[in-house]
Amino acid sequence: MEISALQKARYHYQPKLPAIFSEKTEEIAVSFGEATGSIADSEALAELFKLSYGKPIACFVKGKNEKITRPLIVGVILSGGQAPGGHNVIAGLYDGLKKGNKDSVLLGFIGGSSGLMEDRALELTEEIINKYRNTGGFDIIGSGRTKIESLEQFAASLETIKKRNLDAIVIIGGDDSNTNAALLAEYLSARGSNTRIIGCPKTIDGDLKNEYIEASFGFDTAAKTYSELIGNIQRDAASARKYWHFIKLMGRSASHITLECALQCQPNLCFISEEVEEKKLSLGQIVEQICSSIIKRAANKENFGVVLIPEGLIEFVPEMKKLIKELNELMADDGAEITGMTDFNRQTQWLDSRLSRESSGLFKTLPPEIARQLLADRDPHGNVQVSLVDTEKLLINMVKKKLKELKTQGTYSGKFSPLAHFFGYEGRCAFPSNFDADYCYSLGFTSFVLIASGLTSYISSVRNLTAPVDKWIPGGIPLTMMMDMERRHGSSKPVIKKALVDLEGKPFKSFAEKRETWAAETCYQYPGAIQYYGPPEVCDQPTKTLMLEHS
Ligand code: FBP
């Protein structure tokens, strides 16, 4: 099969590792800190995780670790949405296992957790791994969004674990998948199983992070891929001088991706959902902010611009949040009835008597195609799939109406030609940047050391990420340490806390300081494509978010 020149070259890229991993494997020992707590609800969590709550933080030091070289059978699962670097986590885990003992075996469960429950696995050999080193995507074994939730599902997982004689499983996923990893670890320990469970922090959304997890993998590559595209559009906008580009960016709830792209590209406008929620901005106020920039720029004869919109924005606008909540509830109870209606007017009438007066009024003012998208099938958690709602088109529609009004009043005389874009799937499977390639390989290798040292219910952690790779600090963080209890579907559940954009944090403040100037003037930056070969200041820089957070 023919492969591209870049893919061929990337097969030979040797990811860099933290210095401790250059020691002989049997000389990488684990050192433990103090017992840990949780971010909140410690009593309830200690009760739920009787055997795994309160474990100490683990770090690696030079010393004796005899058990690390035993042969192991390990399973690996990719869970949730794709994120660049997943293949390198698997490659790092594989290389670690083989370095520990050449007879160790790595099994990849096919299609996420279902692969474990249904015992669908593939032995990952050197030949297979070599075809995926430093490449994007999750196609080596596929991913899935099914979680291990019911008693039957836990029992089915245990059956596969016993049948395959697994020493450990590495679950590569986001906050929900890592919460699930902790529940599985506890379930196994309670049944006397010695199978270890280790999580790995994945998601382009960047919302699985805290003091100990500095970044989730994939965020770096995805945000840089979108920034390249935004920069190119900005150059086109500044050349043609005739279009306003409305760009929606992926990131289900948190706006980290949008904020990073704004820091990289300096667009005219960028909305951060967390700020919209805090300031309780209505759709009307957002539209006013956009119009104000359009008017200022038109006065400078600049009838062009770029607006960044986070995917989850509509769920943070108070009146839309209320409408979506009411719709989610109605769809959960009577979803089949409403989706079964083919006539949109009938659907609107049906909703009219069931929604609150405000929500029904708002629903009727939405452009029909947006209203229809809000009624589309829910995700497995019963939520509207925000990546399928054209928020960028909704805003264009509202801005057009507002400008028309302003024109009639004589307060605006410019030209407004909008174009809508959505960048999401374009970034999830890009070739991982050197940062993600190194980070993921290190996370995989770290998982091996944790497993081989007998640890369970930990997440693989690599810290000090703005320093050169040899100074990165690998180790393990107890999964329960990142948890609290939250209401989900009417009951209280343990969850790893999602990190939304911190409005007091340096990345947001740095953006907020400059945005007024960007709204009026053309201050575009053009980050260009991710570079894989060349000087480190071009190829190995982490995101601006990470650098500001560490500054
Ligand atoms: P994860 O949290 O599983 O990493 O997925 C995140 C994400 O890429 C979001 O940004 C997006 O809203 C969603 O997945 C899209 O899901 P799907 O792949 O099912 O369309």
Note down, in words, how this protein is organized.
This protein is of the alpha/beta class. It folds into two domains: 19-218 and 432-488, Rossmann fold, CATH 3.40.50.450; 229-428 and 505-549, Rossmann fold. The protein contains 21 helices and 16 strands. The chain has helices spanning 5-11, 42-48, 86-100, 113-117, 126-130, 151-164, 175-190, 219-240, 256-265, 273-278, 283-299, 318-340, 344-352, 357-365, 368-374, 391-409, 425-428, 434-452, 506-520, 536-539, 544-550, and strands spanning 28-35, 56-62, 73-79, 105-109, 121-123, 143-144, 168-173, 196-201, 244-249, 269-270, 305-310, 418-423, 458-463, 473-478, 483-488, 491-496. Helix 9 (256-265) packs across helix 19. It is globular, with a radius of gyration of 25 Å. 1,6-di-O-phosphono-beta-D-fructofuranose binds at residues 80-81, 83, 174, 203-205, 250-252, 311, 387, 428.
What is the structure about, briefly put?
With 551 residues, the chain is of the alpha/beta class. It has helices at 5-11, 42-48, 86-100, 113-117, 126-130, 151-164, 175-190, 219-240, 256-265, 273-278, 283-299, 318-340, 344-352, 357-365, 368-374, 391-409, 425-428, 434-452, 506-520, 536-539, 544-550, and strands at residues 28-35, 56-62, 73-79, 105-109, 121-123, 143-144, 168-173, 196-201, 244-249, 269-270, 305-310, 418-423, 458-463, 473-478, 483-488, 491-496.
